[in-house]
Amino acid sequence: MQDPGPAVLYLARPCQFQPQPPPSACNAGVWTSHRYSESVISAMNAAINEAAAGFDKVALIGYSGGGTVAALVAARRSDVTYLITVAANLDHGLWTDLHNVTALTGSLNAADFARDLQGIPQVHYVGGRDDITPARVVESFAARMTDSSQTTIRTEATFDHEFCWVDAWPRLLGEAHK
């Protein structure tokens, strides 16, 4: 809502805003082990294809799990001019280990596609107080690249996983384009 761009599209994760009861495709896996599955990423990519028809380039921005989805979608597109993530789980293997939770076995891991993304200018914002997705999760993603010259990780020292991102977004978006 705070992005001043001329053509901005917001996509919710599949099954995020559904009537009750939700459609049968909206099963527990979509929110747990399969949240970044091939079917989820393909559906998001198809939605972007439809919305971006007539445009030569797209920029992808995502928050938290949406940042992971944005990275996975960017890895399969040739028209992405930049990628911005905020508090994104870019290495869910490390993330599940850190939190000692069940592995996301049905999901693609953005870290496995880091090299495919290394030619795209990208900024990854992390909160210095984010215990949900700490900086080392994003750093692990970037470490998989053979060339990280297009990749910037910016830490907002006083931010956590939710606090301050919305209020700071106009500034952060401006900084990401520098």
Overall shape: it is globular
CATH class: Alpha Beta
β content, as a range? 5-15%
C-alpha end-to-end distance: 21 Å
For CATH, the homologous superfamily is named as: Alpha/Beta hydrolase fold, catalytic domain
Helix content estimate = 25-40%
Order of helices and strands: HEHEHHEHEH
Helical/strand content category: alpha/beta
* Tally of separate helices: 6
- Uncertain stretches of 5 or more adjacent residues: none
CATH topology: Rossmann fold
Average the pLDDT over all residues and give the rounded result. Answer: 92
Total E-strand runs: 4
Largest beta sheet: what is the strand line-up?
Answer: 1-2-3-4
Going by CATH, the architecture would be 3-Layer(aba) Sandwich
Give an account of the 3D structure:
This protein is 32% helix and 14% strand. With 178 residues, the chain is of the alpha/beta class. The chain has a single domain (28-176), classed as 3-Layer(aba) Sandwich (Rossmann fold), CATH 3.40.50.1820. The protein has a 4-stranded parallel sheet with strand order 1-2-3-4, with helices on one face. α2 links the parallel β1 (58-63) and β2. It starts with 37 loop residues before the first helix and ends with a helix.
Q: In a few lines, what is going on in this structure?
A:
It contains six helices and four strands. The protein is α/β, with parallel strands linked by helices and 178 residues long. The chain has one domain (28-176): Alpha/Beta hydrolase fold, catalytic domain (Rossmann fold).
